[in-house]
């Protein structure tokens, strides 16, 4: 940040939208590499706006699915969100966000999973119909449409693994990291849809009006993500 910006009492801090959990934890080293230390842990603090060691950078803590909305509408200049969330957001808001950097954090896969013993290969023959439970309805719809499979999508927000076990759905589309949760519930991943990692996203207006302030932070994130990917 320029010294002129830092000494201006009217300057607004750059706002970075983050969600709690794995993305937050894996973002901390990237922030540290950019010379930014977070003042509080959102897991133990009730604050939703958190300061940092740089008075011109603050964090807001929101739900993962809300990060793109805060950034697109300018409530945050920057955000960090998983590709899974961005795919869903882009279906309703095409072209609304600039996604300059893959941070190579919070890596996993968006997969199709079924209960053990379910004949998935027969169930997805062209022209077949399948009931699929997921919160990633747009990604699931596009995936099965490309296969020529009709799907009845059932939107759930959690405990996805339960759906095939109680007959609610034939399959689920969900994020898979270690696969331990699937295994514990007698499910198996049968198809990968897309590799997932978290991306830095930028409000397009902020990129134009605050370019000089944002660029050093973008550069620091890019350098840190490269180092993270190489480690």
UniProtKB/TrEMBL annotation:
Reaction equation(s) it catalyzes: 1-(5-phospho-beta-D-ribosyl)-ATP + diphosphate = 5-phospho-alpha-D-ribose 1-diphosphate + ATP
GO MF entries: ATP binding; ATP phosphoribosyltransferase activity
Domain of life of the native organism: Bacteria
CDD domains linked to this entry: PBP2_HisGs (cd13595)
Any Pfam family the entry gives: HisG
Any one GO biological process: L-histidine biosynthetic process
Signal peptide residues on this chain, from the entry's feature table: none
Keywords: Amino-acid biosynthesis, ATP-binding, Cytoplasm, Glycosyltransferase, Histidine biosynthesis, Nucleotide-binding, Transferase
Chaperone keyword on record: no
Major place of residence: cytoplasm
Statement: the UniProt record of this protein carries the keyword Protein transport: no
Localization in the cell: Cytoplasm
Pathway given in the UniProt record: Amino-acid biosynthesis; L-histidine biosynthesis; L-histidine from 5-phospho-alpha-D-ribose 1-diphosphate: step 1/9
Ranges where the ATP phosphoribosyltransferase catalytic domain occurs: 63-222
GO cellular component: cytoplasm
EC number from the UniProt entry: 2.4.2.17
PROSITE patterns: ATP_P_PHORIBOSYLTR
Its job: Catalyzes the condensation of ATP and 5-phosphoribose 1-diphosphate to form N'-(5'-phosphoribosyl)-ATP (PR-ATP). Has a crucial role in the pathway because the rate of histidine biosynthesis seems to be controlled primarily by regulation of HisG enzymatic activity.
Family listed: Belongs to the ATP phosphoribosyltransferase family. Short subfamily.
Domain notes: Lacks the C-terminal regulatory region which is replaced by HisZ.
Subunit and interaction comment: Heteromultimer composed of HisG and HisZ subunits.
Entries under HAMAP family matching the protein: HisG_Short (MF_01018)
Name of the protein described by the UniProt record: ATP phosphoribosyltransferase
């Amino acid at each position: 940040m320029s010294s002129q910006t830092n000494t201006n009492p009217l300057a607004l801090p750059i706002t970075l939208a983050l969600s709690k959990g794995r993305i937050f934890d894996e973002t901390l080293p990237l922030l540290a590499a950019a010379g930014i230390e977070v003042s509080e842990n959102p897991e133990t603090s009730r604050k939703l706006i958190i300061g940092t060691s740089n008075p011109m950078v603050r964090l807001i803590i929101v739900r993962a699915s809300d990060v793109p909305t805060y950034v697109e509408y300018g409530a945050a200049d920057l955000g960090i969100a998983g590709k899974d969330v961005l795919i869903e957001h882009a279906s309703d808001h095409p072209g609304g966000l600039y996604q300059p950097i893959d941070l190579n954090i919070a890596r996993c896969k968006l997969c199709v999973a079924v209960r053990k013993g379910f004949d998935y290969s027969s169930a997805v023959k062209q022209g077949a119909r399948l009931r699929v439970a997921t919160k990633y309805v747009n990604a699931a719809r596009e995936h099965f449409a490309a296969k020529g499979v009709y799907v009845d999508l059932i939107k759930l927000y959690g405990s996805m693994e339960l759906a095939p076990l109680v007959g609610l759905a034939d399959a689920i589309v969900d994020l898979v990291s270690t696969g331990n949760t699937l295994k514990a519930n007698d499910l198996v991943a049968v198809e990968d849809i897309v590799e997932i990692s978290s991306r830095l996203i930028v409000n397009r207006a902020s990129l134009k009006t605050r370019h000089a302030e944002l660029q050093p932070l973008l550069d620091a994130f890019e350098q840190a993500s490269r180092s993270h990917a190489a480690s």
